[in-house]
Design brief:
mainly beta
C-alpha cells in the first residue's frame, strides 16, 4: 500500500479550523473543482480545470454572489498578487509585486 498517494477529498485548515482549501485528488493528481477561501477579504475562488473558457471565478463568502473589484493577497513566499475582477467574477488583469514593491512577472496566482 502506498501511503504517499493522494486519493479522494482534500481539505486544508488553518489553526482556527477554518477551511482554506478544498478539492479532490484522483491517482495523486488534483481534479475537478478546487475552492480557495480568503476570509479576510470575504472572498472565495473556484478553480475548475474542466472549464477551459473560465477556469477561475471569484465569489463573496457572505452571499455567494460574484465578486467585483480589486482582490489582493500575499503568497507564502511574500509576493503580492493583485487581480481586477469585473461583475461576472472573471479576471481582467493580474499584477505581482515583491516585498520591496518592485513589479515582477507572474504566471499564476
Amino acid at each position: 500500500m502506498n501511503y504517499n498517494k493522494k486519493e479522494g477529498e482534500y481539505y486544508l485548515h488553518n489553526s482556527n479550523n477554518d477551511i482554506l482549501v478544498k478539492g479532490s485528488f484522483v491517482k495523486n493528481n488534483p481534479c475537478c473543482k478546487w475552492t480557495y477561501y480568503y476570509s479576510k477579504q470575504n472572498v472565495f475562488s473556484i478553480f475548475d480545470k474542466s472549464n477551459a473558457l473560465n477556469p477561475e471565478q471569484y465569489f463573496k463568502i457572505s452571499d455567494n454572489s460574484k465578486y467585483t473589484g480589486l482582490f489582493e493577497r500575499y503568497s507564502p513566499s511574500g509576493i503580492l498578487f493583485k487581480k481586477k475582477l469585473y461583475e461576472h467574477g472573471k479576471l481582467i488583469f493580474s499584477n505581482c509585486w515583491d516585498w520591496n514593491g518592485n513589479e515582477i512577472i507572474c504566471d499564476e496566482f
